[in-house]
Design brief:
CATH topology: NADH Oxidase
CATH class: Alpha Beta
Largest sheet: 7 strands, antiparallel
Structural class: alpha+beta
Number of domains: 1
Number of helices: 8
Strand content: 15-25%
Order of helices and strands: EHHEEEHEHHEHHEEEH
CATH architecture: 3-Layer(aba) Sandwich
């Protein structure tokens, strides 16, 4: 059982860039900049991840380390794979608390979105460190809750598998398995020779985070009984 924490990743985001991404009106820029200047020093992106062996896999139930996961997608994707890399990423608890402190809904939205942009930029750089630590190049990710075939309730065993998530990252789970801070992510990285992304089986056409085209036949062809 190995665990690593990556902090102090190299990233940058100017107020002008953030305003452009969020389509902030020119007349609102001064107020936006105040929010930007308040939240930016509090953003502290982290990647907490581990290396775990797959003990059993019957195609629907997978024992990773000492923790069971239940998912047809997980079972099929991890067929003939011996180890995986569970992870948590976050923009940081202090930035979240500050964002939530705004009474104005627009300011709150701006603050949370700045955290999201920062997290994407920081973890993009940090992922290169992850691959170097693991000596792996072709890593794909599966995320609890991104598809109905691996429901969000599977966050609980993922957090149990990683262990001291809150102590390392400040991330906790609500009773409905949502993460706090909300600008956080979780999942399992696995090595693959073929391209895989959850987006391939997600029909949402308006998702700005889409990384691959929707394939309406993929689930039935690859994961159907």
């Amino acid at each position: 059982m190995n665990r690593w924490l990556i902090e102090n990743m190299s990233w940058s985001l100017s107020a002008e860039e953030a305003a452009s991404i969020l389509h902030v009106n020119e007349d609102d820029f001064e107020e936006f900049e105040d929010v930007y200047n308040a939240v930016m020093p509090l953003i502290s992106p982290k990647i907490y991840f581990g290396r775990e062996s797959i003990i059993e896999n019957d195609g629907r139930n997978v024992l990773i380390g000492n923790t069971w996961f239940h998912s047809r997608i997980l079972g099929v994707n991890l067929e003939n794979i011996k180890e995986v890399y569970p992870y948590i990423i976050t923009s940081g608890l202090e930035a979240y608390k500050h964002s939530e402190s705004y009474d104005d809904d627009l300011y709150k939205y701006w603050s949370h979105q700045i955290c999201e942009i920062a997290l994407k930029r920081a973890t993009g750089a940090g992922f290169e460190d992850v691959k170097q630590i693991l000596s792996k190049d072709n890593l794909a990710a599966m995320n609890p809750g991104s598809l109905s075939a691996w429901p969000i309730s599977q966050q609980k065993p993922l957090f149990e598998l990683l262990g001291d998530v809150y102590e390392k990252t400040g991330v906790s789970l609500t009773p409905t398995f949502l993460m706090i801070p909300i600008k956080s992510g979780s999942g399992i990285w696995f090595e693959t020779k073929t391209h895989y992304a959850n987006c391939m089986m997600c029909p949402r056409s308006d998702c700005r985070n889409r990384r691959a085209e929707f394939d309406p036949n993929m689930f039935k062809e690859k994961y159907g009984d």
